[in-house]
Amino acid sequence: MKKNNIDHIIELSNELRWQIGDEFHDNLTEGIYADAADIVKDTVKTSDSEKRFRLDAKIDKIVTSKYFGFPIMFLILGTVLWLTIVGANYPSSLLANLFLDTIHPWLRSGAESINMPWWLSGFLIDGVYLAVGWVIAVMLPPMAIFFPMFTLLEDFGYLPRVAFNLDALFNKSGAHGKQALTMSMGFGCNAAGVVATRIIDSPRERLIAIITNNFSLCNGRWPTQILIATIFIGAVVPESFSSIASLLAVIGIAVLGMAFMFGVSWALSKTVLKGEVSTFNLELPPYRPPRFWKTIYTSLIDRTLIVLWRAIVFAAPAGAVIWLISNLHIGDESIAAWLINGMDGFGFLIGLNGVILLAYIVAIPANEIVIPTILMLTVMVTGIGGGAGAGVMFELDSINATGDILKAGGWTLLTAINLMLFSLLHNPCSTTIYTIYKETNSVKWTTVASIMPVILGFIVCFLVAQIWRLF
Amino acid sequence: MNNYNPLVALAIFFLIVGLLYVIFRPVKGWFWLLKKSIKSNEKVIIEDILKQLYHFEDSDNKVDMKTLVQVLDFNHGRIVEAINKMTINDLIYFDSDILKLTENGRDYALRIVRVHRLWERYLADKTGFHKTEWHDRAEMMEHKLSHDDADLLSAKLGNPKFDPHGDPIPTKSGKVAEVTGVELPLLPVGAVGRITHIEDEPDVIYKQILAENIHMGSLIKVIENNSTRIVFRSEGETVKLAPIVAANLTVARIEKEVAIEDNVARLSSLEANETAKIIGISRESRGESRRRLLDLGFVKGATVSIDLVNPLGQPNAYLIKGTSIALRNDQASKILIKKD
């Protein structure tokens, strides 16, 4: 009887729903909102908002104006990047001095004095410790400078205006204006950029922003670009222009990255991401004085340290692997030499070489150790003097000496250009891959985001190499 | 590595790229064609025939074998084969030359139509596919979804009554709601009505309607109607259509004098120092984005003005309830306002 009753009620409710029609739900929602608005109008009084709003409006008029909007934007973002890259040099070299030139030899002699077997001290000190120390020295200072500055701008309320100014460009490639912010964040660190995509609340645009964030040249790759540009690009022009030429080359690579970001965003939104829900809205919050110390504290804890910790976790095994492949032998060759010989053919085809490819494979955990690994491997396979031994990464203070090693490894201008391109277009570092997985919770999109850039990199390098050799 | 020629390498590369393009290019790629031909089995053919017959009978047209073969995009032999099988299974019968649905056949057809329209509703409300794609995607899905799946989907969507084009969705028990209204060319000058249905076939005409930015559910007022063109005002815009295009719009006439105010406009037409009151959000804004707009305060009666004009044209920032919200033009065009 009771069951019968319930069935009857369900039947009746279906019938009634049918009669009410589709618009009922909407009208109800709108009614609730309208009522709430009326109540607010009657009861809530605002007095001081008027005055504050006028100042806000004035700032907004300037930062979004036709003539000043874009120059102001480029100036601010350019200054932040410049301060980061230049400002990070000093603390970086201090840390490198401490970790790599002071503590490292000290640890080694300590290991010797307690008669630690060579393979254990090599594995732990030359492998694991060195990689971790390197990553901290190169990574920590730029992040500790970049993130607080960026967070201050965010806190002040300027960044939403950047998204507002640029949205039309991103709209054309099927993306969200806020991607301008996550892209800029990516110049600091791609993993942080991926986390920052949480501000994009439309699912399709957020996925686009996550997958294309890798096209922002991150802090770990700027030094590589600058070093290679200085050695090879700066050398082909008259000496008085060499620094400006290498600077332009690096900026050119960064701009190329943005072009790829737009192109890939467009392609994604037209193909695989077509069916994802897309909504747009952008709130322009009122300006407010940034809470300076709180911002610095939270940006150091939330962004810098978390990213650094993940990088360390991934760098430690990478250091071990680098040491092992250089010191374990199969037959009369080390594993590294076998791998390099195996990949040399393919490397040559795309204008690189086996050493570079191997370095990019073992340095998946951190782009920072690519150059030291390349130098170590080059010295090892060419058998020239210098370096610190098999499996011990090193870098030289003198740019000329670094260039000499690379040239001894068979590098040409083409190798340098393609390395710069490949440094832009390759898989994200493992920290970023892990973060992408955390944020999307999808193996599929993580795979796309990891594989797609490296395929693009192969294609671009291949084309450049063939065309170069034609002339 | 010495005997290698960059030209040869390039040639091989472009050969591979070309091959991949031919195989995987959208819609006409060999891979997709192959996939489609494998899938167009007997079940699909039978279901498509049933659906066509249903639509023809629904619009009081009679079908013989010849028209049917013309309408369907299958091999003739297979259609004949399928029709034979359907007569044996008591889905259709011949009334002299004319093909007709049996009671069973009609039930089956209604189920297919139900799935098709439910899926269009789903695509409209829950995904980001553009409306030009709804129809083709639903065509594929209607053969895949089982009866039970359709019920689940329907419940999830809140048992909708109409699909996004205004076509009624048959209920589980086969009930079909009536579409009210007449074809637009039948309305006299001065008549006021609401668009209740937009026909999505044929594709060419549907695209023209979409290009004019005509929305389901919007109020219109006919201001010119002759054999060469039909002109009407809707949401502050004037739209001119050829009669053949206008015939694909169904409009329910509103008899009592609902004041269709002349200064109703779309938010996108607001100028920098004007203020306006919001009248409502067009039915065209659906699902997630509609709810977001309501959340942000774009509700009936709210006052709105332009806060900031974008240096690149869009999105403009609108001042609503003391907050500055940027909307793109295609969103703003779905919010209806009355200028002060």
Average pLDDT number of chain A: 83
Shape of chain A: globular
Helical element count of chain B?
12
Count of beta strands of chain B: 14
Biggest sheet of chain A, open or closed, and with what strands and sense?
2 strands, antiparallel
Strand content of chain A: under 5%
Percent range of helical residues of chain B: 40-55%
Global Rg of chain B: 25 Å
Low-confidence stretches of chain A: none
Order of helices and strands of chain A: HHHHHHHHHHHEHEEHHHHHHH
Described by strand count, sense and barrel closure, the largest sheet of chain B is: 6 strands, antiparallel
Shape of chain B: globular
N-end to C-end Cα span of chain B? 77 Å
Polypeptide structure, described:
The complex is a heterodimer of chains A (471) and B (340). Chain A is globular, with a radius of gyration of 27 Å. With 471 residues, chain A is mostly helical. Chain A is 76% helix and 1% strand. A two-stranded antiparallel sheet of chain A has the order 2-3. In chain A, β2 (329-330) and β3 form a beta hairpin. Chain A has 19 helices and three strands. Chain B is an alpha+beta fold and 340 residues long. Chain B has helices at 6-24, 30-39, 42-58, 65-71, 76-88, 103-126, 131-141, 147-156, 203-211, 243-246, 287-296, 329-332, and strands at 92-95, 98-101, 182-183, 192-198, 219-225, 230-234, 237-241, 249-253, 264-266, 275-281, 303-308, 316-320, 323-327, 335-339. Chain B has a six-stranded antiparallel beta sheet. In chain B, strands 9-14-10-11-12-13 form a six-stranded antiparallel beta sheet. A two-stranded antiparallel sheet of chain B has the order 1-2. Chain B is globular, with a radius of gyration of 25 Å. The mean pLDDT of chain B is 80.
